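Example record for the data management plan.
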Amino acid sequence: MAAVLDHIHMGANNVYTTAHDITQTYKIGHYDGGFMSSITVGHKAVPLGGGVYIEIESLIDPFATSDLTKLPWWYTKALAAPEKAIWSGLCLRVNTMEELGEIAKRHGGVISPRAGRRTRPDGPGVKFWSAPSGPKVVNAWETGRPNWYCWEDRLYVHPSGQPVIPAPGLVDVQGVSWLEMGGTEQEMADWLGQHPDTLNMKFNGKSLGLYAVAVKTDMGEVVIRRRSATE
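Corresponding structural encoding:
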């Protein structure tokens, strides 16, 4: 089956102020998703409906800045952006590890050898695998292309389905209407192995990467724009 949109990564200077800005500007709620200790970042999740969410991350370890190997590749790009936050990754989802393995093989790589783990504030962590990975595979996010995920327990602990922090005037989110991407439809089709229309992508011809996300709500469509990490 075709992959579906899972989440959108926003690299930020400050995970708290960026999440607050999203809620204040677009009236879309968020919650504390915990931390990824392996890469020294904190996490806020912004559910968008339809099994999709925005993942906002920023550096939380002040000592990591003295060790360049611990700095996420998007961090300095976020600092340089006017809003101190950028679109830094687009992530698709498949239902089985077999599908994920086929995608990894098609791109000359493998499934990530170790599962990703994020520790949630309220108890059990979440566990996932991504692809393509490998020494000869370029980081998809750094080239403005999507990568793929498979979750251990997407039905019960998937980040898109968790309750947000109560706030006045929040809208009811109803899924992603469209994504504005750089590059061309054919470039993306070649990478995806499926037609970009299945992911509601439209293209602006700029550098590869994500430029805007349109979200359906009960108060109409809202469009969230940020600079792409590839700009």
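Summary line stored alongside the record: The radius of gyration is 17 Å.
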